[in-house]
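Cross-check.
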Amino acid sequence: MAVYKQTYKPYEGARTPGWSRFLILGRSGYGRLMQSRFLVLYFMACFFYPILCAVFIYASHNLSILENLNIPAGRIFQINNQFFEFYCGFQGGMACLLTSFIGPGLVAPDLANRALPLYFSRPFGRVEYVAGKMSLLLYFLSLITWIPGLFVFGVQAELAGWQWTRDNAWIAGSLLAGLITWDLFLSLLALALSASVKWSVAGGALILAVLFAGGGLAAAVNSIVRTSYGSLLDPRQAMSAIWSQMFRDEQAANISATQAWIALAAASALCLWLLARRVKAFEVVK
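Predicted model, tokenized:
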């Protein structure tokens, strides 16, 4: 626009409130992700096991269905704390794969295209940027983990009655706290690894390596050094130990819940350090 025309006018429309400004990144990224058919198909497949659990619970409370299937009522699995602990482990694994699909495209493209100065030249800070990117991944992870988990618990509570619900209400709290903790850790890990590289494919491979190859590394360390502390290198084993404590599972794990919490806290601190180094308004090129 030519300056001499003097037709420029400042923006006078409605402005986004400061407290919710970070959600803009999540809304813009949502439309981009929904264009991937493979991601949509996998996201729909993540609901198969929760639906299967709900059907199983309904069948276990319906004697006529068990008789038609020739299944003795005494041989059916009990719906208890171990049932929901296994649910956390299964859906937690599905969440790992979903993270490897979504996570690489969160920060790496912005670094590759040097778009961070465009974000931070506006009233938008680094904390808001990280929170906005994390909100998108947390949204998808919540939809496949603790939200259907509470639905499955609600089905069991409705069919089992008030007495069972009152005695086992702590299971719902453990399920909610455990899966939210895992979702937060996965989101933070995905952002940090995505910020460590500028190529989305490399970021996805790095996330898969940390989440799934960590078990092999932990087993190798345990075998060579003859210790159980190698399991701390595997985030999934650490989270499994935490779930065992939350669901009051008496089966002994390789590591204690306290050690697992320390390992996840240290890994989270490392992720925050990587984000602080990589997510900046400028980049020094040597």
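The first helix runs from residue 23 to 33. The chain has a mean pLDDT of 85. Passed to J.P. for a second look.
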